Amino acid sequence: MKKSIDATNFKWLRYVPNSLTLCNSLCGFASIIVALSYNNNQVLPDLQNNVWIICAWLILGAMIFDCLDGFAARILKATSMHGLQMDSLADMVTFGVAPATLITAITHSFKDLHEPRYTVIVWILAAVYLGGAALRLATYNVHAMLEKKSDDKFHGLPSPGAAAAVCTTVLFYQKLGISHTDYWWITPVYGAVLGLLMVSPIRYLHIGKWLTTAAKSKRKLAIVFAVLLLLIFFPVYTAFLFINIYILVGILIYLWKSLTGKKKDA
Fold first, then answer.
1. Is the pTM of this model over 0.90?
2. Alpha-carbon distance 113 to 203, whole Å?
3. What's the Cα-to-Cα distance from 64 to each of 6, 71, 173, rounded to whole Å?
4. Which residue from 34, 75, 82 is spatially nearest to 54, judged by alpha carbons?
């Protein structure tokens, strides 16, 4: 059996997980800066047509660092409460503030939507998303500190999943060539729904832990292989489809369990 590397023997290794977490937060920060710069007319002319794509990919790219920091912490035996808190703070920036900023920035970029009523509505909807992310991450921290056994499911939609739903929606419509002005209201409303799902009692599968057991199941390996192929050839469509299926299936299972009297197992 392969043994994990002990970070205590190489002191510099204990900084690797936190460095990856910082990269996560920096991606979120970059997305926020790019979104705000567009509305302030400070984005380079060559990037103006692709600014929302850049913001979305920065947030999605941060998910790679979010996966790697936890993996590195376990491999290097460098897990700690400090790392847990830092990870949640980074997630709040990248998967909480950055998507909420993207939602409001896209809507406010339309000159015909600068009426106060539209502004207030969008702010409220984005605030629901942001509040849901904050409460979701705080709940996750409490469970991680108090529960001795790790669960293979999340209580409420995980914040990276909610952020992925926002970003893939933006990329999907951009890929179809549909103008943001034609669906300006969809992203804020969907963001608010995602915010409520993050604080809901609906349980969602822990994809990371599901993947760690994939090597033991030929069916799981086949699914992973098929999804990877689709992501290579159709990255935007595949990501949009699977993240929304993930969200919808969780809702449907919860409703079915509730209606059949099996709510505790929902």
1. no
2. 37
3. 23, 11, 23
4. 34
Structure tokens at 210: 């599901």
Residue type, 204: Y
**Regarding beta strands 203-205 and 153-155, do their DSSP bridges make them parallel or antiparallel, or are they unpaired?**
antiparallel
The Cα–Cα gap between 35 and 98 comes to 9
Task: Summarize pLDDT for 105-121 with one digit per residue, the tens.
Answer: 888 776 555 667 778 88
Tokens (6 digits) for 265: 């197992």
DSSP 156: S
Containing 204, the helix (H) or strand (E) segment is: strand 203-205
User: 65-93 burial, b if ≥16 CB within 10 A, otherwise e?
Assistant: bbbbbbebbebbebeeeebbebbbbbbbb
Alpha carbons 70 and 74: distance in angstroms, whole number: 6
Domain boundaries, the chain: 11-265
**Mean pLDDT, the chain, as a whole number?**
83
Do the beta carbons of residue 160 and residue 98 sit within 8 Å? no
* Contacting residues for 84 by C-beta, under 8 A, at least 6 apart: 141, 144, 145
List the single range of 65-79, 80-94, 124-138, 235-249 with lowest mean pLDDT: 65-79
pLDDT at 43: 53
Q: How much is the pLDDT for 135?
A: 95
